[in-house]
Amino acid sequence: MRVNANLFWLLAGFFAASAVLYTVWSLIDHANTPAEGATPLTHQGVEWVGTIGIALGALMSVFLAFYITITKRAQNGELPEDLPTADIDDGDPEVGHFSPWSWWPFVLALGLAFMFLGLAVGVWIIFIGAPIVLFGVIGWQYEYYRGNFAR
Hints:
The structure is a single chain. By secondary structure, this protein is mostly helical. The protein folds into two domains: 2-90; 104-149. 60% of the residues lie in helices and 0% in strands. It is built from four helices and no strands. It has helices at 2-31, 48-74, 104-120, 126-141. α1 runs antiparallel to α2 (48-74) and α3 (104-120) runs antiparallel to α4 (126-141). The longest helix is centred in the N-terminal third of the chain and has 30 residues, at 2-31. The protein is flat and about 70 Å long. The two termini are 38 Å apart. The relative contact order is 0.09. The model has no long low-confidence stretch (mean pLDDT 86).
């Protein structure tokens, strides 16, 4: 985790420096643009879209680096993934429960597709998608309560 945090801190510095350089470069470029006979798209000053976009990339990198740094401090030691001498089976083998044969995610995706299509085409399609989404969520939640896989 230490390496990941350092990479994000490095990335945050890179984005911050890039934002400053981009702002200076856009100011220099706009200063050289002739004001007489300029097109309507030509303006003087900072190009805000790129500057803010790159600065937000720096801010997101700072958020991630800070989170990873705090998480590393709170775990009280190195994870097996961070140790060069660790074996594959040193980590926790349990990653969660997964049903590779389940069709309920497909049903849920179909219902959500109808709902998003309703946002784009017509609101009435949402009324078709909503019951399918509800059916898919309930079916996925309760698939281990009935049939061959009941517990």
